[in-house]
Design goal:
heterodimer, A: mainly alpha, 10 helices, globular, B: alpha/beta, 6-stranded mixed sheet, 4-stranded antiparallel sheet, 11 helices, 23% strand
Chain lengths: 282, 358
């Protein structure tokens, strides 16, 4: 976006914001709001971390199991960390939109001279950042409790985590496109989250699922992100493995197809809501 | 497509004729025959969200007006008149079903992104503010979104806060402010990026009468000083009178009157005389006397002992006094009064003839 110029060359009042400026504006707004509720922020982190401790003790009860690579804590730490990261990426935009609907300041955002296509990205950033923090805390906590990771494979883990995040954001944008019309619920996200929690292999291996559910699991990015991360970052990923290359290709391909589609749909939904007069409704 | 203008010779970097503001003495705001119809949701959408619209609702119909620099137009009308829909079309939050609206020569539908950078918008609801942020941070967020650089914003924040009387509250969080202060910070946000056009939707809606008087004066000063074009909607009739501006009366989506209040009074106003009597019985008697003789005049007892006569055309105060001879000795005070603005507006909205509503 560039500043427009008058015919005499003077700077016109209708300068549009740069991408960097818009991101900075949203980032600062979300940051200030977040630290306004310090206890809530701390409890959110705690709530996500507690399951790791729980699975640490469950691991002691179930003992070593070949299907999970022997060590249940290592297995679940990766599953929970990747799931937390992807859930954060998926729900960031929808959550931001819902809050804006309820608080009544969505219109305030929409009357700023920012292309509406860019809004989903800008509104995603802070919550996505928090999801990354959450992911990091979970991995570190798992390591402290004795999970067997391969530290030298951290770059590969981060690549898979990043692609898992972008594919989750793509689903989040798709869901937000529907939210613009439903104003409240996010059916796409609810259905996907339910399905992914069962067939993604977060806390149990996909191999224990019936055959047809195993086949279905290949259709969702969670399976590639979780099991790809386990394969590259743990000594023994268990009975079900996804290679680094397979994970990168699947997650990258999913993002390339679904993210532009989601942004296009989001834009269409906004335009439709604008025409129907739904933007201020709730 | 008429060529339109942004004063100061503003031209965009892109050479798209449809979007290009051009030079010349064109209005800042130009609304040409716009209509907005809200349609029921399509059947596939009913499963997603239910709406109350069962058949098409025409929110505004053939509305046209223009406003130039330094001009304020008060948009007046009862609930559902189409005021907010008109504003929402102008800032690009919804689209007209037909017709076109332009701000500084830019089409509000086709070039809404750039339109939004030339408009200062103050919604009627203070929930539009970012409640957990301070006054200063609210302005900075808006400034960044408007593409202002740090230097500009650093200079503008104290300047604008001082202008709206909130220089002392820069670091106060919005939720801690009174309704009057929130209205002022909303105004500060609307003018922060130095827009050419102000659109203020019931700016004094939640403000007490004294504070609203101050806010209104402030708006008038800002508009005049900066030669902005401003649209202000309000339900408060005393405010509309105080604006001394052009008035656009909307009713059920149609423009019922476009002009100044003095001209409206000239068209609709009729002599109005009030008599104060010694007791209520004499007041009632006086009312009966006038009603009997002048059935086309409107006579009412506005307080127990006060009778108001709005005379039909051709009647004079002398005619009334003649009829009141039997009770004249009981008249304590006699005065000619200006009809309240609400009576004039009611006459328009109710479609009453000139003999009608008081």
């Amino acid at each position: 976006m560039t500043a427009t110029q008058t015919r005499s060359g003077a700077r016109e009042a209708t300068t549009l914001p740069s991408t960097r400026t818009t991101i900075a504006a949203f980032w600062r707004m979300d940051f200030i709001e977040e630290i306004s509720y310090p206890l809530s922020f701390a409890l959110t982190l705690l709530r996500t971390a507690v399951p790791i401790v729980m699975f640490f003790f469950i691991g002691r009860v179930v003992g070593r199991q070949a299907s999970v690579g022997g060590d249940y804590l290592t297995f679940t730490t990766i599953g929970l960390a990747i799931t937390a990261l992807m859930t954060g990426g998926m729900s960031a935009l929808g959550g931001g939109l819902s809050r804006a609907f309820q608080r009544g300041n969505l219109e305030t955002l929409l009357v700023e001279p920012v292309p509406w296509t860019f809004l989903p990205i800008a509104m995603n950033l802070w919550k996505t950042f928090l999801a990354v923090v959450n992911f990091t805390v979970l991995i570190l906590l798992g390591a402290v409790l004795g999970a067997n990771f391969i530290p030298s494979a951290t770059p590969q883990l981060l690549i898979i985590a990043f692609l898992g995040l972008t594919s989750a954001m793509a689903i989040g944008v798709l869901s937000a496109a529907v939210l613009m019309l439903t104003l409240k619920s996010q059916p796409v996200l609810v259905v996907y989250t339910l399905v992914a929690s069962i067939i993604g292999g977060s806390v149990f291996p996909v191999t224990v699922l019936p055959g047809w559910l195993q086949s279905l699991s290949y259709l969702i990015p969670h399976t590639y992100a979780i099991n790809g991360a386990r394969t590259v970052f743990t000594e023994d990923p268990g009975a079900f493995t996804i290679s680094f290359t397979e994970a990168v290709l699947a997650l990258g391909g999913f993002t390339i197809v679904v993210l532009p589609l989601g942004i296009w749909l989001f834009r269409r939904s906004l335009e439709f809501a604008r025409r129907m007069g739904l933007l201020s409704g709730y | 497509m008429p060529q339109s203008t942004a004063p100061g010779g503003v031209a965009p970097a892109t050479a798209n004729r449809e979007m290009e503001p051009v030079t010349g003495a064109q209005p800042y705001i130009s609304v040409n025959n716009i209509q907005k119809t809200y349609f029921p949701s399509p059947p596939w959408m009913k499963a997603l969200v239910r709406t109350n619209i069962k058949e098409p609702v025409v929110a505004i119909e053939n509305v046209s007006f223009e406003a130039g620099p330094g001009e304020i137009i008060a948009i007046v009308g009862p609930n559902g008149a189409g005021k907010t829909t008109t504003f929402r079309i102008l800032v690009g939050l919804t689209t007209p079903t037909s017709g076109e609206a332009r701000i500084m020569g830019l089409d509000s539908t086709l070039d809404s992104t750039r339109v939004r950078s030339t408009v200062g918008w103050m919604p009627g609801d203070d929930r539009s503010l970012l409640m957990r942020l301070s006054c200063k941070e609210n302005l900075l967020f808006h400034g960044r979104m408007q593409g202002m650089d740090s230097k500009q914003m650093k200079q503008r924040v104290p300047e604008v806060l001082e202008q709206v009387g909130l220089g002392h509250a820069a670091n106060k969080t919005i939720f801690a402010l009174s309704a009057g202060m929130r209205a002022r910070i909303q105004l500060a946000r609307a003018i922060f990026h130095s827009p050419k056009v102000l659109i203020l939707d019931e700016p004094t809606g939640a403000v007490d009468p004294v504070a609203s008087h101050g806010l209104l004066n402030l708006i008038i000063d800002i508009v005049k000083e900066n030669q902005l074009a401003a649209l202000i909607s309000s339900h408060r009739l005393e405010e509309i009178e105080a604006l001394h501006s052009r008035v656009l009366l909307l009713d059920r989506g149609k423009v019922r009157y476009d002009g100044d209040l003095d001209s409206l009074r000239e068209i609709l106003d009729r002599p109005c005389i009030e008599f104060d009597f010694a007791n209520p019985e004499r007041a009632l008697h006086a009312r009966t006397l006038v009603e009997t003789q002048f059935p086309k005049s409107t006579v009412s007892v506005v307080e127990e002992t006060t009778v108001r006569c709005i005379l039909s055309s051709g009647r004079t105060a002398g005619d009334v006094l003649t009829q009141l001879t039997p009770v004249l000795a009981d008249v304590e005070h006699l005065r000619e009064v200006q009809r309240p603005l609400r009576d004039l507006l009611a006459e328009i909205y109710l479609g009453a003839d000139t003999e009608g509503a008081a």
